[in-house]
Write a structure and sequence with these properties.
single chain; alpha/beta; nine-stranded mixed beta sheet; 11 helices; 9 strands
Length: 280
Amino acid sequence: MFMTGETKSLITIITVCYNCENVIKSTVESVIRQKYNNIEYILVDGASTDTTIEIIKSYKTIAEDNGISFKFISEQDNGIYDAMNKGIALANGDYIHFLNAADLFCNDMVLCNVAALMDPENISLVIGGSIHVNNLHNIKALKYYRIKSAVSLYRNGNMVCHQSIFHNSKIFKKYGYYSVKYKLVADNEWLLRFLSLKNNLELISYVTIPIVFYDMTGVSASSREQVFLERKELLKDYNFGLFNYYQGFIINRIKYFKFLIIKLIKKLGLYDSYIKVKYK
């Protein structure tokens, strides 16, 4: 485990983006402000047509002056997870973290605090918390995650915010990259795959440290209907027995109906009141 005086784990941060000129600056600066001094930062752009590319390039020298290894590519991709896979292929870090455009580290000590708990030889995942933010409705909700088993994740479908996870780079080599079959839940599928196949020596460390401010208006958060459809496909793709399949199917349907009710509340103009009650 990393201690003062020992070699620090190299942490690779991957940001994927496309036409994010309004938010990419704050995300990049969130990485550059980190006090940790062994960072590799990889930005994978999907051939943006706005000023995103120019903004990213303007930070290369600043990042390198702060001791950060800065890599940037811009080309068309097959969705978010294809872009994330490109970042993984370029990564040299002991651990890999995905910080999406519009997401921010909670403070400039996040990597220092998490690195103190990293052990590349023994710890496969380090999972912290996330603060879910919706500035439109002035929402900030802190969440922590704990995974009981592959079966419970399969059955309950409780998504773990992947921006809260630091992945040991070795496990991508062992268990594969993200499946591009899924456009919105491939991180959930990968986690399910890892939990299903991992051995008892591949450990998960849970930390009570909020890692990111997670943008609740992001792609997956704003495409909930598609998430439910892909979750339905995910249930079919894994075999944990009929009991767990039907329980997972029912739970997914219940969540979908809750989503439809919230959609109706929005149409009726009552969403602000609903949010105030839910998050007060």
